[in-house]
Write a structure and sequence with these properties.
Largest sheet: 10 strands, mixed
Strand content: 15-25%
Helix content: 40-55%
Number of strands: 12
Distance between the termini: 37 Å
């Protein structure tokens, strides 16, 4: 089964290109069945044997799309379809309302047609993955509108949204408005929402990969690595010894079991520079001990784990939005790849104290495994978590947006494109409910 990816805005197109590049590179070095399974998911083959990404590229400016097309061709391994992209000469001005109310509706038919063509090229559609940022205008506004269209046209298909959250210090002055509007709308449309925070990924580049001058491309490669470790073929408990057929369906089934809880975060171990990899050896007990503590203490990387945080005893499950505290999970998916993967002891992730009390741990925890090493790592483990991990950044973002809204800052920029104060209030109410639900997980 195949996944059709829709890359939206500057960030969505840049991350998407890195993801396809990483997937193609990883599959090329894998076993025959693994490679075939990966390519079937994300690429189609031409009569000449060329790999063409199952993707649609959308932006309101042509520069980034042209760069993505050129980089794909330059790789020599894969390319985008010749008529699979759409761009205009005028951007959305970092305004969600401009993207959602103006550009989205204006270009709906052409974008839907591009997606329809890609979907019809699939023997069987596993689902659609929309990749976007929440900070700007095109990724957030047009991206939300396109997701709404996808839900209308493909009501029974799985839709996964991948969101890149902006730096907390700010890239765009109205980024918190754009983020609130995006997330509130997507919560009604998407089956699951995978979140990557730029601040966290930046720290991984600096602390673990030892990159001195970090570029957006470095950040995007880390995101692509983590996403790829989830989406590449693996064996599940129900796949009968063959690679799972539907990565999006299996992901949603394992993690998004309740419509109030759709926010997923990813952490991967190990992550290190190529120079360090040559001198490092890993054991499954060591990797899983660190990964479990990363989950418990809500640490997104193995450096700086707080080993003092422990699962609560009895009914002591209070959640703090300020200090360090135990991170309660609704559901977790552990994905192991590499040597001796079937000997790894994963019982520590079945501990009932890790999870909310109303879901048994054997239903809340899933694992996938593959003996094929991923992206040059002999052994690697990835945890996709539906937990309180996103609670603090979400609460911070909503709080900053509310402070601006209360002073009516920049509201006129949204009103002039058709977004009313009532629309803002509805979005705040929706996200306050999400925050409340995650706060009460414990």
């Amino acid at each position: 089964m195949s996944v059709v990816t829709v890359q939206l805005g500057q960030c969505g197109n840049q991350v998407g290109q890195e993801l396809f590049d990483m997937i193609c590179s990883d599959a090329a070095g894998g076993q025959k069945l693994y490679s075939r399974g990966s390519w079937e998911r994300f690429f189609r083959q031409t009569a000449h044997g060329d790999l063409v990404a199952r993707a649609v590229l959308v932006d309101m400016e042509p520069k980034v799309i042209n760069q993505s097309l050129a980089r794909a061709v330059k790789s020599g391994r894969w390319r985008y379809g010749e008529a699979s992209h759409f761009s205009q000469k005028q951007g959305s001005g970092n305004n969600w309302a401009n993207g959602f109310c103006v550009h989205g509706p204006h270009h709906r038919e052409v974008v839907e047609e591009l997606v329809r063509r890609e979907v019809e090229r699939c023997d069987r559609l596993a689902g659609l993955m929309a990749m976007m940022s929440v900070a700007g205008g095109t990724g957030s506004g047009v991206g939300t509108y396109v997701t709404q269209c996808l839900r209308d046209v493909y009501p029974k298909s799985f839709i996964l949204n991948h969101l890149t959250w902006p730096y907390g210090t700010g890239e765009v002055i109205v980024q918190n408005y754009n983020s609130v509007l995006t997330l509130a709308h997507l919560y009604q449309l998407s089956d699951a929402i995978v979140v990557h925070e730029n601040d966290t990924v930046h720290r991984i580049c600096s602390k673990l990969l030892n990159i001195k001058h970090i570029s957006f491309r470095d950040v995007n490669r880390v995101i692509a690595h983590q996403l790829g470790s989830v989406l590449q073929p693996a064996l599940t408990a129900y796949s009968g010894g063959a690679h799972s057929r539907n990565p999006l369906g299996d992901l949603v089934s394992a993690l998004a079991c309740h419509p109030e809880y759709k926010l997923l975060s990813i952490c991967t171990i190990p992550q290190m520079s190529s120079a360090s990899m040559d001198y490092s050896t890993f054991s499954w007990p060591g990797l899983l001990k660190h990964l479990r503590q990363m989950l418990i203490s809500n640490s997104k990387m193995e450096e700086g784990i707080d080993w003092q945080v422990r699962p609560p005893s009895g009914t002591d499950r209070t959640r703090s939005l300020t200090g360090p505290s135990f991170n309660t999970s609704l559901a977790n998916l552990l994905i192991l790849r590499g040597k001796d993967v079937f000997s790894a002891e994963i019982g520590g992730f079945l501990d009932p104290t890790l999870y909310t009390s109303w879901l048994p741990s054997e239903e809340a925890f899933s694992s996938w495994k593959s003996e094929v090493p991923f992206n040059k790592y002999e052994k690697s483990a990835t945890l996709v978590s539906n937990s309180q991990a996103v609670l603090r950044p979400l609460d911070n973002m909503v709080g900053k947006a509310w402070n601006m809204f209360a002073s009516r800052a920049y509201l006129h920029q949204y009103v002039k494109f058709g977004i009313s104060e009532e629309d803002f209030l509805d979005s705040f109410t929706s996200l306050e409910q999400v925050i409340s639900s995650y706060s009460q997980l414990g």
